[in-house]
Amino acid sequence: MAQINVIGQNGGRTIDLDLPEVNKGVLHDVVTWQLASRRRGTASTKTRAQVSATGKKMFSQKGTGNARHGDRSVPTFVGGGVAFGPKPRSYSYTLPRKVRQLGLAMALAARQEAGKLVAVDGFGLDGKTKGFVSWAKDNGMDGTERVLIVTDDLQARQAARNVAWATVLPVAGLNAYDVLRHDRLVIDAVVLEPAQDEQEGEEA
Q: What's the rounded Cα separation, in Å, for the pair 108 and 26?
């Protein structure tokens, strides 16, 4: 059972969460699925049938000493078509919902094990970058780490969005990939508390 300290204006308490053991294989599957879904898939090449070129035979079939050729658009020549080249496609695929949820829980567990998970209830910021930098310094964030701020507090998001070492996401955008690619996670306490309430309900 992991104990997460809650800081902020309404902090001063702990959240008990039963986080899963980190499995690198599951995390790899979830991150690969996320990155595949983000690929645009717009790369496109022309086949020999699509290349605009003359249909005239290049030179005589025999007697020149050259190999036999009849088409300038073949992949052999510069400017010709591409054999088996990429075409526009979707790289996304389906990953079971339970696996996605487990991957996110494991990402949170990884940050908790490293002591890099911070729950906040009430940032108390006025939307100014200077105020966020001061708040971060008071809470052990001096800019040497990449920090992910996940909150629905508009003032906090506005204050942090211009800080080079901080990335801001709304709660709905929380995902395993962004959690793992940042050194520290700062998240609204309300996001973790429903999970605590569910666990207590199951125990009852």
A: 13
Model-level pTM? Answer: 0.81
pLDDT per position as a tens digit, 159-195: 999 999 999 999 999 999 999 999 999 999 999 987 6
CB 140, CB 115: distance < 8 Å = no
Centre a 10 Å sphere on the Cβ of residue 28 and count the other Cβ atoms it contains: 11
Find the helix or strand (DSSP H, E) in which 34 lies: helix 24-38
Q: Which domains does the chain have, with CATH numbers?
A: 2-40+91-203 (3.40.1370.10), 45-85 (no CATH)
Measured from the Cβ of residue 110, the count of other Cβ atoms closer than 10 Å reads 19
DSSP result, 8-21 = STT--EEEEE-PPP
Angle between helix 24-38 and helix 97-113 axes, rounded to 10 deg: 120
Residue with tokens 């035979």: 57
**73-115, pLDDT tens digit by residue?**
999 999 999 999 999 999 999 999 999 999 999 999 999 999 9
Here the tokens at position 46 are 């022309």
Give me the torsion for CA of 8, 13, 16, 17, rounded to 10°: -10
Q: Is 36 exposed, middle or buried (0-12, 13-18, 19+ CB in 10 A)?
A: middle
